[in-house]
């Protein structure tokens, strides 16, 4: 069984982890209600997509702000 | 290489997958619009298209083929007499998938599948719905002809119908 020969320093591990980054989601503005929304998705705030397409009422989805 | 991976398996065995997709088309044809995960929504499209094509064919053999999936004579009738005629001017691609966002419990991406003739859910009652759709049908051919003569009419007949 392979075993580590030497102790790993904190710095070594931390340096490796500097590349673990979070990317912010690409948020766009809803063309109808101007709330932030994810691209290519029906707006969760007003239920519109591509300007004038009404999909289910807002009541079905509690707006996640 | 993804050669030969035409069928989305959806983590199910063939019989399970086929049963599920059949159930889903039944819902789609009865309600015109259903909400599922994006993967299932996308897998549903060819199934729905195939059935509507049977509906447009309209002969007895096609009816029996459709019945094999739908298992409901009333629904087959609805498909052949109400739904399929609405797609007379369209060759395939009878559905639309709209992404809705993620589900709360498991983060699955959800979508809405609708038949392209579907009206917004804001509809008051069934009677209103049917009446409106019939109006569309009768108006469509006229508008199309009008557009062909006037080159300026770039808006698709489908869009016009929606605005009404």
Describe this structure in words.
The complex is a heterodimer of chains A (65) and B (164). With 65 residues, chain A is of the alpha+beta class. Chain A has a domain at 25-65. Chain A is 12% helix and 12% strand. Chain A contains 1 helix and 4 strands; from the N terminus they run αββββ. In chain A, a hairpin with a 6-residue loop joins strand 1 (28-29) and strand 2 (36-37). Chain A starts with 9 loop residues before the first helix and ends in an 11-residue tail after the last strand. Chain B is α+β, with helices and mostly antiparallel strands and 164 residues long. Chain B has 2 domains: 1-117, 50s Ribosomal Protein L17, Chain: A; 119-164. Helices cover 55% and strands 12% of the residues of chain B. Chain B has 6 helices and 3 strands. Chain B has helices spanning 14-31, 38-57, 60-70, 73-83, 126-149, 157-163, and strands spanning 33-37, 95-102, 109-115. Chain B has a 3-stranded antiparallel beta sheet with strand order 1-3-2. In chain B, strand 2 and strand 3 (109-115) form a beta hairpin. In chain B, helix 1 (14-31) packs across helix 2, helix 2 runs antiparallel to helix 3 (60-70) and helix 2 (38-57) crosses helix 4 (73-83). Classes of the chains: A alpha+beta (65), B alpha+beta (164). The A-B interface holds A 38, 40-42, 44, 49, 52-57, 61 and B 98-101, 112, 120-122, 162-163.
Compact summary:
With 65 residues, chain A is an alpha+beta fold. Chain A has one helix at residues 10-17; strands at 28-29, 36-37, 48-49, 53-54.
* Overall pLDDT of chain A: 84
Please report the distance between the alpha carbons of the first and last residues of chain A. 52 Å
Q: Let me know the largest β-sheet of chain A.
A: 2 strands, antiparallel
Derived from helix and strand composition plus strand pairing, the structural class of chain B reads alpha+beta
Query: What is the number of strand segments of chain A?
Result: 4
The CATH superfamily of the largest domain in chain B turns out to be Ribosomal protein L17
Q: State the share of residues found in helices of chain A, binned by percent.
A: 10-25%
Helix content of chain B: 55-70%
How are helices and strands ordered from N to C of chain B?
Answer: HEHHHEEHH
Q: What's the architecture of the largest domain in chain B in CATH terms?
A: Alpha-Beta Complex
Oligomer: heterodimer
The helix count of chain A comes to: 1
């Amino acid at each position: 069984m392979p075993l580590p020969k030497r102790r790993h320093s904190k710095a070594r591990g931390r340096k490796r982890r500097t590349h673990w980054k979070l990317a912010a989601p690409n948020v766009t503005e809803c063309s109808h209600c101007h709330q932030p929304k994810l691209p290519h998705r029906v707006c969760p705030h007003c239920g519109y997509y591509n300007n004038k397409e009404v999909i289910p009422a807002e009541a079905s989805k509690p707006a996640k702000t | 290489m993804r050669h030969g991976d035409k069928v989305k398996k959806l983590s199910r065995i063939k019989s399970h997958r086929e049963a599920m997709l059949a159930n889903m088309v039944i819902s789609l044809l009865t309600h015109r619009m259903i909400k599922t995960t994006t993967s299932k929504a996308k897998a549903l499209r060819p199934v729905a298209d195939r059935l509507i094509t049977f509906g447009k064919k309209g002969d007895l053999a096609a009816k029996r083929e459709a019945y094999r999936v739908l298992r409901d004579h009333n629904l087959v009738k609805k498909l052949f007499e109400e739904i399929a005629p609405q797609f007379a001017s369209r060759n395939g691609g009878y559905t639309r998938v709209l992404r809705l966002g993620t589900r709360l419990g498991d983060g699955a991406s959800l979508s809405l599948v609708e038949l392209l003739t579907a009206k917004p859910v804001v509809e008051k009652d069934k009677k209103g719905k049917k009446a409106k759709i019939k109006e569309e049908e009768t108006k469509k051919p006229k508008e199309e002809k009008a557009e062909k003569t006037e080159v300026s009419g770039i808006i698709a007949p489908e869009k016009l119908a929606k605005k009404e």
